[in-house]
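Journal club side-thread
Mid-discussion, someone asked how the predicted structure for our own chain would compare to the paper's figures. Pasting it here so we can look after the session.
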Amino acid sequence: MPTIKDVAKLAGVSHGTVSNIMNGVKGVSLDKVKKVEDAIKALGYQPDAAARSLKTNKTMNVGVVLPNITDPCFSQLFTGIERVLSDKLYSTSLYMTSEIAAKEKKILLQIQRQRIDGIIIATCQPDNSELFNNLTASGIKVVFVEREVLNDDFNFVGFNNSNIIHDAVSKLIDTGYKTIAVVTGPDGYYSEKQCIDGYKDALIRHGIPVNNRLIEIADLNKESAFKAAFRLLQLGEVPDAIITSSTQIAEGVLKAISICDVNLDKKPRIISLNGDSWTENSYDEIVRLPRQFMLMGETAAEILLDNIERPAFYDSKNVILNNSDILIKEPLERKAAERIIHNNKHSLKVLMLESSSSYATFSLLADFRKKEGINVEIDTLSYNELYETILEESLSSKYDVFSVDIPWLPELAEKGILSDLSGCIEDNPQSIEDLIPGILEEYAKYNEKFYVLPHIYGTQLLFYRKDLFENNKLQRLFYDEYRTELKPPKTWAEFNAIAKFFTKEYNPESPTIYGTTLGGKCSSGAVCEFLPRKWSFGGRSFDEKGNIVLYSKETIKALKNYCESYKYASPTSPDHWWYEQVEEFCSGKAAMMVLFMSHTTDITDRYKSKVVGKIGYDVVPGGTPLLGGWSLGINSNSKKKEQAFKFISWACCKDMAIPYTILGGSTPCVNLYKSSELVSIYPWLPKALESFNLSRKRSIPKSSSGLVISERCYEEIIGEAVYKSINNHMLPEDAISFAVSKLQALINDTQNKK
């Protein structure tokens, strides 16, 4: 087993130098760092491995590494482990990975450096056998539970999920169930793949074709299962039964069914793998497939103790536990009296932006129909089409409700397109309950009247690769380059310096191709990324009297800074929008991203993101993020204003806040940002709430003659100028001058039309 002295000898440096490098001490030359790292790699040295190999006494301490303990199965598992170990006078240290591989690696490294005798683990990276071979080579005994590491000889205790699910599906078919769906966790976990295999095998044995649309693979949490269930319930034919592989998945599916209840001819029965407890409540909708997780914990602990006490004579064990029998009832049919017949006279037409938020609202409509008996049709349009269509509605009553980008409010209110909601809000104070303090003023109010209700909240945040910023080698390289520590940027100058450092073209040692993502698509993308820089550098568009003051050294400096950023981003970034930025960041190609938090849910989705668990977040450089968001307003020509207000009150209410956000929206209700379950998935939510008071929205004052200038037209002018500059079609000075002349023409045209 190589020692730290061996590393020092091979690298040609002192023992102390090796220690300093491993502990991240600054000031060591880059040449010595590379020599030590090459020696560590060549020798296969593991920190503390030598000390462990020389150890003669046990520590009487065992680590238990689990995804969480909110799932009752893992709570029962830990109880069984702790019971056996405490009887043998062992202490137990519990670690939780939150299903994040990077976090699990850190935990295992910590365990490896400590004097722990062994671990019991439900791993979230069962394909990483090299990691666990290194762990056992350092002297730590390991027992895997629930999730087996295949193609290697490790201790394992599990259940035969394939047989359990096969028997359940077979009994469902024999009882008369025809359409059966399944929702499992990641199929990279053998325990979850077994569920899918058992499900498919049962269908095939009964001569039923496998329909892959009835197989949903989710993350192992309620929120992901909630989304998966909505996809199943919107297939056309509602499944008779839904098999789930965990308690948390079952809870998410059950919540989706309760919301869609009014639209369903039958309620799918949920059959779920579960723990085994006599105190569990039974529901008609759920059939539990009990598994003895406490026994699993006890068995795993006994195997680990045997491995620790008799290492020289020990052979690895693979134990598969049996499960109890189950009872399947007849399918549940909906009672005719529960169905709601919709009156077309009460139907509403709603026009929204084509986005994940409109999909979320559409998916939840069954809840509104159930509560109000009102049918709703939603049409969606692109950003530019939506604005133009709303303007055309000034003489039409085709749509009752509009989605309104917050900068459009003054223009739409002045033109009489939106109804005054002040009286409705006063009569229905519950319609604005639990909103972020101050958000009504920013999203809904114009000239002391309320015209809309806030529907989507979004502020910009800085997202960055935390694993890279904390990497010792990269920290040393950065310090050598800039003589300062590598930290999330606080200014836009720092942002560009760090973006350059993480761009492989300028730094061959960078693990990422680009320093940042950017989205300069004209006009919204360019404007939204440029304005925070302009504000940070002190640039303005208008003075207090409404005169144009855009052309200034501050604004030009901001645009030059923004243009420089494109040197450190993908060549196609000038035509990217937010979706492309997220995709690029998820792929691991970029080290940083500034984006509205409402568009970033995919970065924690393990099926779409390679950087799950590696993400840090902060306020944007310069400290003045752009406030984004949308509201819902009522067409002043609508003949169904009372019903329309019921709809927008429902869509924006706190009861729908969390389901709406899970499905792709972003609520302005405070309860979302205080939900421990949602914060565990989207940890930047508290920072997003904190950023509200720092944010500024896109808005312009009235002209010097008191006229309201179209913010949308203003945005197109600024966006065009910025877009020309980032594409090197105009120098920043010329681009700003170009924007000034077009703004003056816009003001003149507005005055002439009056």
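Post-session note: Residues 49-56, 332-343 have pLDDT under 50 and may be disordered.
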